[in-house]
Design goal:
By secondary structure, the protein is an all-alpha fold. It contains four helices and no strands. Helix content is 83%, strand content 0%.
Amino acid sequence: MKNAKTLNWVIAVAGVWEVLAPFILSYSQTKTAMWDAVIIGIVLAVLGAWAGLANETKTVKALSWVNAVLGLWLVIAPFILAYSGVAAAMWNDIVVGVIVVVLGVWAAQSVQE
């Protein structure tokens, strides 16, 4: 389970990056992209840290799957929320989303119940 907890800490860091990205990558003026990044980033940071600190295998596994779903949302959000024309926002969300999906699934699969 140590591997899953470490992977979730990386997801938490990705969540912090997602919160900061609109301001660092200068797309905070695109409100939809900015708010999506901030809200999903906060949730990823909180759930990643929670899974990183949790001692129950079911909790770590469940939170890892939730993080994977949130990563999938980041991949499709630019197209559903119509900010795919903002390249920095779109590519940031796709890259971070793919990373979170991979890490979330990996973490969930590495938990032995």
